[in-house]
Design goal:
Order of helices and strands: HH
Radius of gyration: 34 Å
Number of strands: 0
Strand content: under 5%
Largest sheet: none
């Protein structure tokens, strides 16, 4: 069963689904060597910052395992 489309007040909207452009988009411009080096440098800087913060933050996050746990005098019954 064929359904007929409802009338649309604007003709260009009714024919928009059938429209195809014959104009191709312009080709992408190739990145220069300086742009590629800049992207690599930015990426390496970000990775080095994350690794550095992890290295500097690990001692603060770890609990010392060689020291004895201290108990208060109240827990010992004094």
């Amino acid at each position: 069963m064929l359904r007929r489309r409802e009338p649309v007040p604007f003709a260009f909207l009714a024919e928009a689904d059938r429209f195809r452009s014959n104009v191709a988009p312009p080709p992408r411009q190739r990145s220069s060597a300086g742009q590629i080096a800049g992207r690599w440098l930015l990426g390496l800087t970000l990775v080095a910052g994350l690794v550095g913060s992890l290295v500097l933050g690990m001692p603060a996050l770890s609990t010392p395992s060689d020291t004895q746990t201290q108990q208060s005098q109240a827990s010992q019954g004094h």
